[in-house]
Automatic annotation (TrEMBL):
<keyword id="KW-0694">RNA-binding</keyword>
<comment type="function">
    <text>The globular domain of the protein is located near the polypeptide exit tunnel on the outside of the subunit, while an extended beta-hairpin is found that lines the wall of the exit tunnel in the center of the 70S ribosome.</text>
</comment>
<protein>
    <recommendedName>
        <fullName>Large ribosomal subunit protein uL22</fullName>
    </recommendedName>
</protein>
<dbReference type="GO" id="GO:0006412">
    <property type="term" value="P:translation"/>
</dbReference>
<dbReference type="InterPro" id="IPR018260">
    <property type="entry name" value="Ribosomal_uL22_CS"/>
</dbReference>
<dbReference type="InterPro" id="IPR005727">
    <property type="entry name" value="Ribosomal_uL22_bac/chlpt-type"/>
</dbReference>
<dbReference type="Pfam" id="PF00237">
    <property type="entry name" value="Ribosomal_L22"/>
</dbReference>
<comment type="subunit">
    <text>Part of the 50S ribosomal subunit.</text>
</comment>
<keyword id="KW-0687">Ribonucleoprotein</keyword>
<dbReference type="InterPro" id="IPR036394">
    <property type="entry name" value="Ribosomal_uL22_sf"/>
</dbReference>
<dbReference type="GO" id="GO:0022625">
    <property type="term" value="C:cytosolic large ribosomal subunit"/>
</dbReference>
<keyword id="KW-0689">Ribosomal protein</keyword>
<dbReference type="GO" id="GO:0003735">
    <property type="term" value="F:structural constituent of ribosome"/>
</dbReference>
<dbReference type="GO" id="GO:0019843">
    <property type="term" value="F:rRNA binding"/>
</dbReference>
<comment type="similarity">
    <text>Belongs to the universal ribosomal protein uL22 family.</text>
</comment>
<dbReference type="InterPro" id="IPR047867">
    <property type="entry name" value="Ribosomal_uL22_bac/org-type"/>
</dbReference>
<dbReference type="InterPro" id="IPR001063">
    <property type="entry name" value="Ribosomal_uL22"/>
</dbReference>
Length: 126
C-alpha cells in the first residue's frame, strides 16, 4: 500500500522546473528572473544566452529544464510556451568571519537561493 496519488498543483497547460541552493543572493537572482518573466520561451532563452550576468547560465538551465518537462512529461507545444512565472526564494545563508583590525571580526554572509520557473502553453491569441 502506498500513498494515494496527489492532485497536480499546476494546470494541464503548465510545466515547471525548480533549482535549489543556487549560490547567489536572491536579490541578484531576481534581477535575471525579472528579465524573462512574461516572455516567449525562445526569446527568454536568447536573452539569457547573451546576458552578461554570471547567474544567467543557471537560470537558462532551469528554463531549458522547464521546457523539456513541458515537452516530454505534459506533451505541450514548445513553440507556444511562455514564461508564466519566474520567482525566487531565499535559502540558507552561510556565515563566515574575517579578521579585522584591533581584534575584531567582520561578518561575511554567503546567501543561497531557490529558483522556480513555470512555463505555460499560450493560446492562439498570444
Amino acid at each position: 500500500m502506498g500513498k494515494p496519488k496527489r492532485e497536480r498543483a499546476l494546470k494541464d497547460t503548465e510545466a515547471r522546473a525548480i533549482t535549489r541552493m543556487i549560490r547567489v543572493s536572491p536579490r541578484k537572482l531576481n534581477l535575471v528572473a525579472a528579465l524573462i518573466r512574461g516572455k516567449k520561451a525562445s526569446a527568454a532563452l536568447a536573452d539569457l544566452t547573451f546576458s552578461e550576468k554570471r547567474i544567467a547560465r543557471d537560470v537558462k538551465k532551469t528554463l531549458e529544464s522547464a521546457i523539456a518537462n513541458a515537452e516530454n512529461n505534459h506533451d505541450l507545444d514548445v513553440d507556444a510556451l511562455v514564461v508564466a512565472e519566474a520567482f525566487v526564494g531565499k535559502a540558507l545563508v552561510m556565515k563566515r568571519w574575517s579578521p579585522r583590525a584591533r581584534g575584531r571580526v567582520g561578518r561575511i554572509e554567503k546567501p543561497f537561493s531557490h529558483l522556480t520557473i513555470v512555463v505555460r502553453e499560450a493560446g492562439e491569441a498570444a
